[in-house]
Structure to design on (106 residues):
C-alpha cells in the first residue's frame, strides 16, 4: 500500500515532508499542528530532514515541501535500493508525460 501525502499524491522517495497532526482547540475545533520535517526513503521508512538519521514519523497528514529531493547517491548511501529509485524515476517520467498530454489536449 502506497502512502499518500495530504494532496493525495504518492510519496516521492527523497522528498521532504512536514508531519502534520490534527489537534483540537479549547472550543473542540480542529486545527493542524505542523511538527517535524522528514524525508521519505521508501516503504514506511523516514529519515530526519536535517540529520538524515532514521526516525519515526508521527503524523495524521504529510505535506510535501517545495525543495529538491535527495540525490540518487545520497539515497543509495542511506540504503535505499537502486531498483526502488529507478522504479520511482520511471513512474515520475510517465506522470509528467501524462500531464503534458493533458495540457496539449486542453
Amino acid at each position: 500500500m502506497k502512502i499518500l501525502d495530504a494532496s493525495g499524491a504518492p510519496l516521492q522517495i527523497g522528498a521532504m515532508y512536514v508531519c502534520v497532526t490534527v489537534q483540537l482547540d479549547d472550543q473542540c475545533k480542529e486545527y493542524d499542528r505542523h511538527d517535524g520535517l522528514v524525508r521519505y526513503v521508501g516503504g514506511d521508512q523516514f529519515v530526519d530532514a536535517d540529520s538524515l538519521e532514521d526516525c519515526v514519523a508521527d503524523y495524521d497528514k504529510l505535506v510535501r515541501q517545495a525543495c529538491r529531493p535527495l540525490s540518487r547517491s545520497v539515497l543509495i548511501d542511506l540504503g535505499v535500493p537502486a531498483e526502488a529509485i529507478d522504479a520511482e524515476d520511471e513512474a515520475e517520467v510517465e506522470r509528467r508525460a501524462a500531464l503534458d498530454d493533458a495540457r496539449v489536449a486542453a
